[in-house]
Amino acid sequence: MHNVLLYDTTLREGNQAEDIAFSLEDKLRITQKLDELGVHFIEGGWPSSNAKDYDYFKEIKLYNLKKSTVVAFGSTAKPRSEVSHDNNIRDLINAKTEAVTIFGKSWDIHVREVLKISLEENLTLIEDSLRYLKQYVPQVFFDAEHFFDGFKADRDYALKVLEHAAAGGADCLILCDTNGGTLPHEVKDIVAVARNATQKPLGIHTHNDSEVAVANSLIAIQCGCTQVQGSINGYGERCGNANLCSIIPNLQLKLGIPCISDEELKKICAVSRFVFELSNISPLKHQPFVGSSAFAHKAGVHVSAVKKKPQTYEHIMPESVGNTQRILVSDQAGKSTILQKAKEFNIDIASHDPVVQEILAELKELERQGFQFEGAEASFELQMRKALGMKERYFDLVGFRVINEKREAEEAISEATIMVKVGGTVEHTAAMGNGPVNALDNALRKALEKFYPQLKDVALVDYKVRVLPSGQGTAARVRVLVESGDKVDTWGTVGVSENIIEASWQALTESITYKLFKDQRKHENSHT
User: 42-79: b or e for each residue (b if 16 or more CB lie within 10 Å)?
Assistant: First the structure.
């Protein structure tokens, strides 16, 4: 079978899903994770649509991506305008990406009723837009929007759209099931016709409104499509896009169609959970392949069989996608995960060492309390080192107090006072901030910078709060996720408490501890 190119649209269409709003920092972090996963194309956004996407294309140039090509997304030029003067086309070129995707109408009802132009004008618009872009961008893709509905309404016209897109120089023609209403047997027949109608490579882009987006994508690939578009966790408009977390392992493990390496495939579970965390959405436990329940066994008959031979109730090896088998009655899973993380953190630990079980038990207790370490690996590394007796104590809290004051017609004021002990010295200081957490962060740094000047390089990059399910209203526990960075890299830490300030304190202090630890480790390594 042919190789398949993966095209991720999490940052653009995924960001259009209800309840999701990625920050610029979120988009940059997700881009790095997708690059590590081996995704070929990452659709960064629509530079003409908002300032955040425009800034993304400037910022991402500062990153050295190893596998992925960033793609700018937009539309054909507007009707009745010169392509060379169209602002959308200009912004796509100014994004200076190696690839661009534009969409055009392939359903006659959209041409007549939405664009309000003739069918011939639309064909010219598509061809001229692609031909102009191709002068400035190495790779140009064409999304034939509503292709399947358009084909069913007017087969000849839908195929003419592909013909004119090919004439304009499109490197790949993507057949889009934009409304998500097409069923697998229809996809099979229509893709076969399209495959015979053009020599250009075809791609597939499906939506999940009929709960068959993944199936439609797989069938389209079997019928000859060589590019598949989708998003992590299936994020997207309405019911979402095709879920790459299901498409990739199905291609690789079930159909024998290569798209990423086996080592990259093992990262897909972690990438899924990372994106859930940055989306501020609880992971879907029952999601195929990557959900925490995907290889969980509870019924006695299942447990008995799976212990003897895992394939009796597991369709693949969970480790192949970075997941683990879980026995819910007496949970025996997780040891391999601990050993894998130890390897990543350069911690030398043997599989038979009793401390592995101790770390696993502590991890499960923390997760029961509401801790999650996806997106907070610095906290997890510190937790492991603490169990091994390797965690340094750089400072101790004596106490802190945070005061919020609000007067009518005035901005709210936050002030934090803190006492910390470093060695035998107690430092007592205070600081203002934009809110109580920022005030506490400022006060903590102010107290510690005289002892650890390198903390001046640390910046709070992102801060997220999630209320954990409890039914206790405002007394519910909260999980705080903090992302920090210095001039070299970024790291995530987590805290959990019924008190948002206490949870924030946990995450902030772990962030600073991790910075001091990694600097100490770097210093020690340079002298060995």
Answer: bbbbbbbeeeebbebbeebeeeebebbbbbbbbbbbbe
From CA 88, how far away is CA 260, in angstroms rounded?
A: 33
For the ranges 37-51, 164-178, 333-347, 402-416, the lowest mean pLDDT is seen at 333-347
pLDDT at 1 over 70: no
- Region 216-240: mean pLDDT is 98
Name the residue type at position 353: D
**Domains, the chain:** 5-279 (3.20.20.70), 295-333 (4.10.430.20), 340-386+458-528 (3.30.160.340), 395-451 (3.30.160)
Q: Distance from first CA to last CA of the chain, Å, rounded?
A: 50
The SS3 call for residue 244 is: helix
Q: Which residue has the tokens 């798209």?
A: 259
CA distance 202 to 224: 7
**pLDDT for 333 beyond 50:** no
Rounded to 5 degrees, φ, ψ at 512 are -70, -40
Q: Which two tokens stand for residue 71?
A: 């793609």
pLDDT value of residue 474: 55
Is the CA virtual torsion 264, 279, 293, 210 positive or negative?
negative
Q: What is the pTM of this model?
A: 0.76
What is the C-alpha to C-alpha distance for residues 232 and 244, in angstroms, rounded to an integer?
A: 5
Kindly tell me if the per-residue pLDDT of 104 is higher than 90: yes
